[in-house]
């Protein structure tokens, strides 16, 4: 039994099915749903609004939007709108995005730490109902205020979480954010270093790492057939090892394995290429960085992340029966 648990949705399911899963998760005591927005597939805000409009209690988080494709004022206005729809339930998760995706759409990610800092600082002030003048390297606001004419004019309670993986971004998160969205496809041991980095940053702000909320994405591939569960996780692991090298670096995957995977995969990878590349990813790596197997095995793996510092597992369901996974982690 977990005190806190959340669900993570990407684009694997139709949005109407996602609504049903979120409603079911809410009925089982899940704390939050976090909607992905990483690849050029599904915008996070539209499904977040759908989830917010069809539930009563569960929190609705972006897991995560990036700081490049929406300016700070639009981000603040968007989350004010979500707060209008679901008061005190919106969670703003934001991250620095990644290459080659950012580069492929014409964005040069220079000084990602400074860019995130400026967006977080300015968005927080806007949501606090301030009139903001801010001139940084990336954010330029002159006397900007969320111009609410009809409705609630008071400051909005929208916690800001940074999706951080690298050491410097973790330190910045500890310094300026309300929480961190710890990444998936890392081992529980990764959390030890993450906690140290978050603590370093938190001390700059005169607080402790334990003052930050620390939910963590966890891939959960659950099936009574253990092989099916492992293969389900292996497919995702293979794609991420090839496409997001910072993940591979974080978990210590050998250059030999990475070389074999990259020799097969193009960008974007085809299904056939993924199937071939999966053969190079051993069970040990899958089990190191994902909760894969029976319900009991998945719960035990998720507990490792909690023991290592995560405050709330955000479960990414890979198996065909999402409701079974929700039942396996039900809080109520």
Short summary:
This protein is an alpha/beta fold and 332 residues long. 45% of the residues lie in helices and 17% in strands. The protein folds into two domains: 6-220 and 308-328, TIM Barrel; 225-293, no CATH class.
Summarize the structure in words.
This protein is of the alpha/beta class and about 325 residues long. It has two domains: about 5-220 and about 310-330, TIM Barrel (Alpha-Beta Barrel); about 225-295, no CATH class. Helix content is about 45%, strand content about 15%. It has 14 helices and twelve strands. α6 links the parallel β8 and β9 (about 180). The model has no long low-confidence stretch (mean pLDDT about 95).
Give the number of domains: 2
CATH topology of the largest domain: TIM Barrel
**What is the count of β-strands?**
12
- Tally of DSSP helical segments: 14
Q: Whole-number average pLDDT? A: 94
Largest beta-sheet characterization = 10 strands, parallel
Distance separating the two termini: 9 Å
CATH architecture of the largest domain: Alpha-Beta Barrel
Structural classification: alpha/beta
């Amino acid at each position: 039994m977990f005190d806190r648990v959340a669900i993570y949705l990407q684009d694997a399911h139709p949005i109407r099915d996602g609504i049903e899963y979120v409603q079911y998760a809410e009925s089982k005591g899940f704390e939050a749903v976090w909607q992905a927005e990483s690849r050029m597939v599904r915008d996070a805000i539209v499904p977040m609004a759908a989830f917010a409009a069809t539930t009563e209690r569960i929190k609705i988080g972006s897991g995560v939007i990036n700081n490049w494709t929406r300016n700070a004022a639009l981000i603040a206005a968007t989350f004010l709108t979500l707060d209008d729809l679901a008061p005190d339930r919106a969670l703003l998760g934001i991250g620095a995005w990644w290459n080659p995706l950012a580069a492929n759409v014409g964005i040069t990610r220079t000084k990602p730490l400074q860019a995130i800092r400026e967006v977080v600082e300015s968005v927080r002030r806007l949501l606090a109902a301030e009139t903001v003048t801010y001139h940084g390297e990336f954010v330029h606001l002159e006397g900007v205020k969320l111009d609410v004419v009809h409705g609630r004019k008071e400051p909005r309670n929208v916690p800001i979480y940074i999706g951080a993986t690298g050491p410097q971004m973790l330190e910045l998160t500890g310094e300026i954010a309300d929480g961190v969205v710890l990444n998936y496809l890392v081992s529980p041991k990764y959390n030890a270093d993450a906690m140290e980095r978050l603590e370093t940053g938190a001390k700059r702000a005169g607080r402790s790492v334990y003052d930050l909320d620390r939910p963590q994405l966890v891939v959960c591939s659950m099936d009574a057939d253990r092989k099916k569960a492992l293969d389900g996780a292996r497919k995702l692991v293979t794609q991420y090892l090839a496409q997001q090298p910072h993940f591979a670096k974080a978990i210590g995957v050998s250059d030999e394995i990475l070389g074999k995977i990259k020799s097969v995969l193009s960008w974007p990878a085809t299904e056939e290429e993924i199937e071939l590349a999966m053969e190079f990813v051993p069970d040990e790596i899958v089990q190191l960085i994902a909760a894969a197997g029976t319900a009991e095995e998945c719960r035990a793996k998720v507990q490792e992340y909690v023991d290592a510092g995560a405050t709330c597992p955000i479960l990414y369901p890979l198996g065909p029966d999402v409701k079974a996974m929700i039942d396996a982690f039900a809080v109520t």
